[in-house]
User: Fold this.
Amino acid sequence: MGRHLGASADVIIAGAGIAGIAAAWGLARRREDWTVLLVDPRPPLSLTSNRPEANYRNWWPQAAMVELANRSIDLMADLQSSGATFAMNQRGYLYVTADAATAERLPARIAEYRGAGLGPAAADLLEPGEIRARFPHLSPGIRGAIHALRAGSVDTVGLGMAMLEQERGGGIELAEGRVVGVDVGSSGVRSVTVWTPDGLEQVETSRFVDAAGPWAGDVALFLGVRLPIETVLRQKVLMHDPLGVVPRSAPFTIGLDDRGGRPPGVHIKPDDSVAGDAIKLGWAVDQNPQPPIEDPACPREFPHDVLARAATIIPGLAAYLDRDPGIIDHDGGFYARTPDGMPLIGPLEVEGAYALAGLAGFGAMMAPAAGELIAAWILGDDLAGWAADFEPARFSGQYDRLRTPPGSAPSGEL
Assistant:
């Protein structure tokens, strides 16, 4: 990343995570003559974008999210067709329950999601016998499951680098720095002030994109805008599975049951990106918002807690509770989420200012389509009808009233 900035840029983007890179990619594909300046104090894809669950799905309860996800998956496939080599599989998402009442409600859940625009082939409803036949590593107590089919894992960093490299010659520039101010005049954005290792620099521009991930709310305050987002800590554990408890072909598996007053949503999957026998465990056990920090201290008890909960779904994992579990990594990052669980993609109250934020836990899967959409806003292109569902203006004047209820998660969030 370079240190010296130019005197001006056609667009300045705060944040070089997956969202910021996608925005730059979306713009560079259409305007090769523009200079798109990505500003971040860290290397690209090195903070939250490097700590994701790294999955994708079109399985959403909101029609606009289905549309955005389908478009994004199509764009990822196009990138691979053009020669990009990032890893991506389609093993699906497997939602499981050991509760009879929850199992009885699964057909209604499938109908709800299909009502959001998913076709009849979007998911399979599995009865206990079929579950045991297809996934014998699961607990025999599993009473029902939904296997969402257009879903799987994706290499987030590889995807981001593929977008960056595809359009690097189209005017995308990377700058090591931090946005510390935005000058706004009567006609809108006029310039952006950036702290760099060599001092403060002011870059003229009339277009500014806030894609600062967990810090998007702070950056928006430079514009005098308050974004309706809150940040929550999300953790994951990577560990060895020398016993081969989780088959390498297993889908991303999510528990639907709460136990002992603790939330559902524990999830397990094989992860070949680190080691040939690695598995990844996650659980959004803490729903309490807190201010983001770059390197959060993750609770020491989390690896044991998530492993114990995962073992209720995959009993073989219990073997690691009484031995060194072979932890490869335990880390976390902050996700920025909105009250309705959908991202902010579109113009802000200040002319020339835009947000691409609030992609809590789905940044990678939605990034290509989100970048395409924010580019359409900036360039004045025609917009799909569902684009309005992501406009920040949907929360205008309602920020405090629409806060996420304490201890809960928006619809669709794991």
